[in-house]
Amino acid sequence: MATHTQDTDDTGASESVSDPLLRTEGLTKRFGTLTAVDDLSLSIEEGDITAVIGPNGAGKTTLFNTLTGKYEPSEGEVRFRGERIDGLAPHDIVGRGIARSYQITNFFPELSARENVRLGVYAQHAGFGRSDLLSHFTQQEDHLAEADDILDRIGLSEVATEQAASLSHGQQRHLEVGIALAADPDLLLLDEPTAGMSPGETGEAVDLITELNRDTTIVIIEHNMEMITDISDRIAVMHHGSLLAMGSPADISADERVQEAYLGEDRR
Which burial class, exposed, middle or buried, applies to 190 when counting CB atoms under 10 A from its CB (0-12, 13-18, 19+)? Predict the structure, then answer.
């Protein structure tokens, strides 16, 4: 649950103010002379859907990689529920309650949808690495119920026994989300979850994200402005690694700086 601090108003009375679920302060990530994320400070409120947008090369995926421990920040910090998580290993960050899906599908194509999700559930309980799981999971009959519950949530129950490689593109993207959900996250990061989808598949993805948001805070990198305007509580706009603007969809759509830096450019 979110922590709270006590603020004092002009009368001297105190009121409870919720801390953000996740907060970055001065977050910077450099690769040699390239600064991919530049002094970025933003807050993610619990229960929200927050979209992160920006031109190609704005630093969006690098931001996700830094939040989830793939990259260690060059400067600054990341706090989740008030505690610093920058510098932790990826599996430790997952254990704190943050999970992600990837822009490129990331599952075992030769395994069934159920086996892929069950591996994710088993990893959450056992803490094994990827290679360990492959050698041990066939001996485990545990966690099937949890896997089936997740498959039901993501709409893949009917294809649970089908090989992941044989699923449609939209179903594979949903499977990616299901594997992330296996970690039972409080914060779910989705990197372009509708990339390459047909309009029908995109609609199904929107429905899934909206449903998941009932009990999970979501941060989403997306290029589909109509989609994120419809589903997002707040939008963060990145430009050259920095936070250009953050606000409601209406505020962002009306921001001239955003129109110049992003909305008027070719988007992906």
Answer: buried
